[in-house]
Amino acid sequence: MTAATHSPLFPQESDGGQIMAPPRDADAVLDGLDPEQREVATALHGPVCVLAGAGTGKTRAITHRIAYGVRAGILQPSSVLAVTFTNRAAGEMRGRLRQLGAGGVQARTFHSAALRQLQFFWPKAVGGELPRLLERKVQLVAEAAARCRIRLDRNELRDVTSEIEWAKVTQTVPADYPAAVAKSVRDAPRDPAEIGQIYGMYEQLKRDRSVIDFEDVLLLTVGILQDRHDIAEQIRRQYQHFVVDEYQDVSPLQQRLLDLWLGERDSLCVVGDASQTIYSFTGATPDHLLNFRTRHPNATVVKLVRDYRSTPQVVHLANGLLNQARGRAAEHRLELISQRPSGPEPVHVEYADEPSEAEGTARRIRDLIAAGVPAGEIAVLYRINAQSEVYEQAFADAGVPYQLRGAERFFERQEVREAGAALRGAARFGGNDSLLDDVVELPSQVRAVLSTKGWTTEPPAGSGVARDRWESLAALVRLAEDFVRAKPEATLADLVAELDERAAAQHAPTVQGVTLASLHAAKGLEWDAVFLVGLAEGMMPITYAKTDEQVEEERRLLYVGVTRARLHLSLSWALARSPGGRASRRPTRFLNGLRPGSVTPGPRGAVAGEGGSVERGGAVGTAGAGVRRKRRGPVLCRVCGKSLTDAGEMKLTRCEDCPSDMDEALYERLRGWRADQAQQLGQPAYCVFTDKTLMAIAEAVPGSEGELAGISGVGSRKMGRFGADVLAICAGEERAPAAADS
Asked: Which residues are bridge partners to 19 per DSSP?
């Protein structure tokens, strides 16, 4: 599995595995960016909102934006704070910025940034030492429930803990919890009054023991910045430019903290996609993203819709899912345009029962691996973790290696810690280690050291703890092999330093096994082949999704799953839970009109029944673009799908701020030709063709009279007068100025 931006394995590498020096200057930072990414990178002033679809290179855009500002001398590295939601994403961002020559920029999670500020300012604002941070709140919640004489089983305890976290990030105090639940139409795992009582006792126990939890880190930082204007100003002097990734996942509490960091300034760049909002149960809301232009009327808004990850077939299915969506987030959906070559059609498979589905999936994955697809580039994604067991069994039976996503972090595993200590010792005292006497190359040294910790050339049979341990050690061996390819002269000490840096960034190498993960855990990752399983009503959408908003979030969750696939995509469901059971299940409603033989549910799904083979908007600018017939009724933007009302936008058949695939050199040649014609006619240039018509021609590049005539603004009269010249220019011929007909 890899990060969703297909990042290089090591920060100093390029995608091709070569060691790359930082760009020579600020302009070189912009090399390789597409027009919309370049617009993001150069928009360094005022509020900026980047609406970035899945696979469109958002991390690339914002890291190049920061690096360009730093290299151009516009931004001071120490004055920039880039905020994201996971340590892995923050570590990746720091690595990219170093590679671009912008080291020194702070890239942190909200909690990490707030904790540093809290630790620094607590003695000044409150006095004494900061209370101890509670790593896991479950035990204290269990004690709070016992004090309230409320019995919770293990699952209820976990759910109540999640409810307390939701209450805190939505800034809901214990006494207000029942009313807040009712207002949010939230399904509480127990009586809200009981949860409110446990919540109150939990807060009391924390105070009595002088401990704080992760939500308190944000709450206390907010409190200090609100009460102590001198401290708030000190932070604002330090950080003057902010970048927030995954802005659709910001909670009300995080937004409050961001507002306090900003003060009255507007040097803020946010990046997000409302169609990937899948964490509302934790308090995340896309409202801040959707309201950004309301809060900042002068904001620069850039849409990234060029999908570099997935094939046109996968992108078409993803777009089809959103075409059927409802609600406010759906109104701001982005229609992706694949930039990849054509690939296989998504496969839809119906099975008799769940074990058959798991066994069939295992067989198909085994075939993919035999065909050359690495096991680590394949994922099986399901709605809830409880679905994993049947796949673990099927994969063990089929001899397919796998790993569970969401388990203990790689560098925190006992065997990895032990291996790291052994490698560190060998690097320090290797000259006296008989293991390394006859071993010269780095990967062989690593294999020799790890052989004392359980690594062997062949994995142990079956699954279980022994196999998990071997996979971890094998991942370290592969990491050493990759590292020496990137740095041929690297030593064991260099590798140990790299491991330490990656451990600090929580950036784990790939374990070579098929990934089993929930759809939520898959967010931010991508694979060559993705199997979406269990797509039956009751599981997708999940049974407890009752309201329209909840159902739409389930649709977005499936959309996230679809957009994880680069090349191969399989969607499957079972008609019964167990062999011999009643075949009463139906495939998810979200695939109606998208899977073969199904019916499109409504007017917005008009493109859905085309089987994933059409990339909407992808042919614009080629020979097929000029054959569009005159439309009746509303004209829709061919990029984002919105209805167009502006005459100029209707002529272009796209929104003014949607990406253009215009041939700029052709446009300039057409403008020069138009100027000559206008001069000879003694008329303004727009009387020949308006700018918008020239742009439409340069985007369509017509190759025949029929295609040219199909462009708005080219009537029969102008076709007869100027058509031959325009077609010749579009064909690349140079047209000498000629006297125009009067």
From this structure: 13
